[in-house]
Amino acid sequence: MSASDQQFDLIIRNVRVEEGGDFVDIAVRGDRIAAIESRIRCDALSDVDGEGSFAFGGFVDTHIHLDKACILDRCAICQGTLAEAVQQTAKAKAGFEEADVYSRAARVVEKAVSHGTTRMRTFAEIDPRAGFRSFEAIKRVRRDYAFAVDIEICAFAQEGLTNEPQTYDMLDTALSDGADLVGGCSYTDPAPGRHIDMIFALASKHDVPADFHLDFSLDPDRTDLPKVIDATLRHGWQGRVSIGHVTNLSAMPPAQVLAIADNLATAGIAISVLPATDLFLMGRGHDSLVPRGVAPAHLLAGRGVVTSIATNNVLNPFTPYGDASLIRMANLYANVAQLSRDEDLALVFDMVSETAAGQLDGSSRLQAGVEATIVLLDSPGPCAAVREIARVIAGWKKGRKSFDNGRPVLHKAI
Ligand SMILES: [Zn+2]
Questions:
Q1: Most buried in the list 78, 103, 219, 299, measured by CB within 10 Å?
Q2: Please, are residues 196 and 228 in contact by the beta-carbon 8 Å criterion?
Q3: In the CATH hierarchy, which fold is given to the domain comprising 59-359?
């Protein structure tokens, strides 16, 4: 039976699903895409004209800290260094209350939704300063915004484990109480190797993925990466380990980067590159020719590493900017990495959509039978969208409209 003879709940007409492809209609029944075909003749409860926009499954943020977003009002930034950011945020964190975390996180999630994000992995710091207050708030945010975005929560040790053993037990508790995975940060721990082993012990015990903040410096000789690669292979955790930052890759010659990329690809370790934070915090020792300090995501991807570009922080001492827009982050990365070719820009789009979804063990590709989570961009396709920071028009989550930014209207002089 052709799609033209059927009844649908929603049809979005006149959209592209590939760069420069033919216009098609997307038919939705219930929470699933029923058909993607040209000129579907049917009745639908909701009939939407996509007006030539680009339809895809929405942006995927693989690395964001909702719990410590929007705290510039209670932090001082004097040096703009990583050490200062960690110290200032730790001080603020001791005063976090659940309602406060909830309202700041919800504000960021609402921005992310309106910028077309349909899936994200957020870190929630759990330690003697934060207690479980941030974690409880983020769990409520996850539940209250499930109408628009799938949020997975990483129980995260930002300030060490070997120096603060009670954090280990707190992470263990969180993993039995709603956390989806566990995260470590070896550069703040006095014993980085032991820290990595402890995170893997928790990942193993709870059978969950692990996510590390790693090698956040411009020193190519100071690296914990071999330890994480070794532990990943030892535990058989290929495809379940992610790493954020690895800014020291930006300080290495390309041949060394490519050799490391091959090791990462073999170990099935994914990388989240975080350009807004890395550009702000790295290279503070330079007063001229300041290094960019952003890991070369496109080189890693070219060697088969699962690579995404993500937000990381919004309006705090790690990143005193931000709007949780991933198309803006993709454009920032492309600009910093000096990319110009269409295929490179399409690759960058994948790093905030399909490849990023794969890192979180999902997919955002639109096809018949999959979940009807659809976002429209005011653009002919991914490449143009990255070049122009395409406007996000509207989105549906599981067939239900989740946001609408409206169409801009020019009031021209006659
Ligand atoms: Zn981070």
A1: 299
A2: yes
A3: TIM Barrel (3.20.20)
